[in-house]
Specification:
319 residues, alpha+beta, 8-stranded mixed beta sheet, 4-stranded antiparallel beta sheet, 9 helices, 14 strands
Length: 319
């Protein structure tokens, strides 16, 4: 697959959304219903400074990933929302392989509580990372507010994300491994739907793919410098009674880019832990339960993953 096979995603203006521009709101709903993904332009809005902070934070974490493995492993924790994750801890893109990415995770609750949790090389810039996270939180909850205005749910979507209650919301910075041209296995990020409400992603590197149920095929998301990529997660799909699409996606190397690292960062907005919803398994669980079950499935092998719909939401290739 080459760059010519790319997904056609809408580009929405955050400034227009915040000014309640009706055509832009209609395009937001259409993107969330049909694709579950869209580009977001924050130029000329109150989120433009946040994008500058995201770029600075991403640059700092790129440098941090260059540190020796033994030093990074000191920051590893028994947590899926906090600390360092080395490559190879989850199932990979191809059966019987492991993933090919490392990341560093910074939970919103730790920022709110004033915890001292960042490693050497990053801790002196904690205010920068806090600004990145809080700007991302503002952007994602604003989008939820727009969707609440349109769909009029019994409980507004943003009201599941009150700051005073504990959640699993976190910001993560990723590095995907280089790969030789002779090997196309054991790298990337296995196909999945995001477990939370909304994801605010930024990357200037190729690798992200989205799955189309209509064509039963994968397409690359073209990286566009200066634009975020937003996608709907499971929780928002469940809150909306399946009116919005939690799109299946994965990360795989692009031909010709195998010898390069891929860098990205994402804010994962997740509901308060005790909020409940009905899942793709037709069970009613709390947001925390769904979070824990989803990550347990991530860690399982492919045979176990295929026994339920937790990882993919019941969406997936037919071949």
């Amino acid at each position: 697959m080459d760059k010519s096979h790319t997904a056609h995603l809408e580009t929405l203006s955050f400034a227009k959304l915040t000014s309640n521009d009706e055509p832009e709101l209609a395009r937001l709903l259409d993107a969330c219903q049909k694709q579950g993904f869209f580009y977001l332009d924050v130029a000329d809005s109150n989120a433009s400074d946040g994008l500058e902070d995201r770029l600075k934070a991403l640059s700092l974490t790129k440098q941090w990933f260059e540190r020796p493995t033994e030093e990074k492993m000191k920051f590893r924790q028994d947590s899926v929302t906090k600390g360092y994750k080395p490559p190879g801890t989850l199932a990979g893109v191809v059966r019987q392989t492991r993933d090919g990415f490392e990341n560093i995770k910074m939970p919103r609750d730790d920022f709110i509580n004033g915890a001292d949790f960042l490693p050497e090389g990053l801790k002196d810039e904690i205010d920068l990372f806090r600004r990145d996270l809080e700007s991302s939180h503002m952007v994602t909850t604003t989008i939820l507010s727009c969707l609440s205005d349109i769909l009029e749910p019994s409980v507004r979507f943003e009201d599941h994300h009150r700051g005073e209650n504990v959640s699993q919301s976190t910001i993560m910075y990723f590095r995907y491994a280089k790969q030789s041209k002779e090997k196309d296995r054991g790298v990337g990020h296995n196909m999945h739907t995001d477990l939370g409400t909304l994801t605010l992603l930024y990357s200037e590197d190729w690798g992200l793919q989205v799955y189309s149920m209509e064509t039963d095929s994968w397409a690359y998301v073209m990286p566009k410098p200066g634009l975020y990529v937003v996608n709907v997660g499971d929780a928002l799909r469940f809150f909306s009674s399946n009116r919005l699409l939690s799109a299946l996606h994965r990360v795989v190397p692009l031909l010709g880019h195998e010898a390069q690292y891929r860098y990205s960062s994402a804010y994962f907005l997740r509901p308060e832990n005790e909020v409940k919803f009905q899942t793709s398994e037709n069970t009613v669980v709390s947001a925390l339960d769904w979070h824990d079950r989803k990550y347990a499935t991530f860690k399982a092998d492919h045979v176990e993953q295929e026994k339920n719909t937790i990882l993919t939401g019941g969406i997936g290739p037919r071949g």
